[in-house]
Write a structure and sequence with these properties.
mainly alpha, two-stranded antiparallel sheet, 33% helix
Length: 221
């Protein structure tokens, strides 16, 4: 969606070491080359790895494909979805929403609006519209993430909509997703998070609890 490619995975069985390996990268390079022969992996921005568990049933048998189970009232389990979840998540959500609504006797809310306006992206606008946006709010003229051309105004709006961490901002507007991986913009993103959330910059997290970036990350404002 953002114009970059994600290649992989190597998907090795029974692995407990989730470090990036030369063998894994060679595997990805070979397989990707079969689909895109002209692909130049010298343009790679970042490599990463992890462990993805294979779920099992109580009797020890493996769940080879994902399953949908209904163990109790208004309780549904979607187990072992893994990669197919990238393409079927929307349909699964609709399927379960209908099931739950019927089970609980819920009625459709005619006032509900499922459409949420997107964050205005200055880089996607013609120069004339961009200039008008800057006149309306000068922070649209301040580029924070130069790799992805993300402005200070976009980051502020992202935080006001619910982002509470550096990675939360990244996921919403792409600040830190470019070639430098946040080397130039992360400090400013942290300062904006601290300002908008009303916390000291030492309390700003990379992502979840315990991922404070600076020393003394548990201090209070």
């Amino acid at each position: 969606m953002e114009g970059s490619l994600l290649l992989g995975p190597s998907e090795r069985e029974n692995e407990t070491d989730f470090a990036v390996s030369a063998a894994g990268l060679s595997f990805v390079r070979e397989r990707a080359g079969q689909v895109l022969p002209g692909l130049d992996l010298n343009d790679t921005i970042r490599s990463f790895a992890a462990v993805r568990p294979n779920p099992q049933r109580p009797d020890g048998s493996s769940i080879g494909s994902f399953v949908i189970e209904h163990p109790g009232l208004a309780f549904w389990s979607l187990i072992g979805i893994k990669t197919p979840g990238l393409t079927c998540a929307d349909e699964l959500g609709r399927y379960l929403a209908d099931k739950l609504a019927a089970e609980l006797g819920a009625e459709e809310n005619p006032a509900f609006d499922p459409c949420r306006p997107g964050i205005r992206r200055a880089r996607e606008l013609p120069l004339s519209q961009r200039a008008a946006l800057v006149r309306e709010n000068p922070e649209y003229g301040e580029i924070v993430c130069h790799c992805e051309e993300v402005t200070k105004a976009e980051i502020r709006e992202t935080i006001r909509r619910g982002a509470v961490s550096v990675d939360g901002v990244k996921r919403r507007v792409g600040a830190g997703m470019g070639r430098c991986q946040g080397s130039r913009c992360e400090r400013t993103v942290m300062e904006l998070l601290a300002e908008e959330l009303g916390v000291p910059v030492t309390a700003v997290r990379k992502d979840g609890p315990g991922s404070e970036i600076l020393e003394g990350g548990h201090g209070k404002n």
